[in-house]
Amino acid sequence: MRLWTTESLTQGMRLGKSIRNERGQILINEGIELNEKLIRRLKELGIPFVYIQDPRTEHIKPGKNITETLRREAISTIENTFTDLQKNDSLSSSFVIEKAYRRFSGLIRHIMNDIRSNDELLTLLADVYTYDNYIFTHSLNVTLYSLAIGMELKLSSKQLETLGLGAILHDVGKMLVPVEILMKPGRLTKEEFEEIKKHSETGFHLIRNVQTLPLLVAHCAYQHHERIDGSGYPRGLTGDDIHFFGKIIAVADVFDAVTSNRVYRSAMLPHEGLEILYAGSGVQFEMKVVEAFRRAVAVYPNGLGVTLNDGRKGIVSRQNVGCSDRPVIEILEENGEQLEAPYELDLNNHNHLVIAGCDTAQAKINN
């Protein structure tokens, strides 16, 4: 299978992996031949990447993430809780969160078990979903990334559960932002952005009034937009004044934001998102957290076309756990010629070789 940008799809290609909505319902089945109408529909749905069948790489499979059942349960719980908040006054809102607390805790534990049982790096490109409300999917994705980072940093189970709760509720304050601003299809005005920025403090006050939740969960919502150089909000905290969990969620939040399709910009590939994090490492983001993220998350997902610094081209076929920028590559082209007998090359065993570029559009599929 090959990972392809939706913008570069052409008629006659066959979908390699089904497209689902955030509730797990199949919208477009695996194996269907793409025509002009379907390609247009994929673009309208805001899907940035899809897997396409390719006879030469049919043995290459996307990585595994949490189970479909767990994903549906998580999205449903987040959606029900967050939409209930929009319907209630501030006094009732804390009760809504408290009512969902047990379900969220159970979800976090199940997610932790799924991540632990997975022998591959986490990659959210493995499953292609559309979403009605970005906040619900984003909240789950940030939770997955935060827990993967926390596990890489050897946090205890109790710490991970608190971190997971903080991540899943980090944007809860957005549900009290005026809907016309929250769901605006274009860029926000300066005044609208100032309104959006209030969600960190709003979320803090909502969560801290829930007696059964650790106060640290509220601080995760409060601090996930703080930056170690003081350039963040709402308080402009610096360095160690920001809790370590806030630093973890900040990295997860930014990465998911830049690798998701939005109305005002296209999604970046994971390695491009990692470059954003490294550009801010030690300035905006904690270096130790960014490094843990790099080890825990696949930045070159299976099926991605790559070019090596010696000119060879191929497809990422497998991941090296703990070393996301050194995957195993199936070489398909050498010296500008397509190989009749492709072969695997493990970058971990060839330190002089690096991935020089990525290609999700130009290589030909021989049907």
Automatic annotation (TrEMBL):
**Cited CDD domains:** HDc
InterPro entries found in the cross-reference section: HD/PDEase_dom, HD_domain, HD_GYP_dom
| PROSITE patterns linked to this entry | HD, HD_GYP
Q: Give every HD domain span.
A: 135-258
Q: Which domain of life is it from?
A: Bacteria
Q: Where is the HD-GYP domain?
A: 113-309
Q: Which PANTHER family match?
A: CYCLIC DI-GMP PHOSPHODIESTERASE PA4108 (PTHR43155:SF2), CYCLIC DI-GMP PHOSPHODIESTERASE PA4108-RELATED (PTHR43155)
Name of the featured protein:
HD-GYP domain-containing protein
Please tell me the species this chain comes from.
Peribacillus glennii
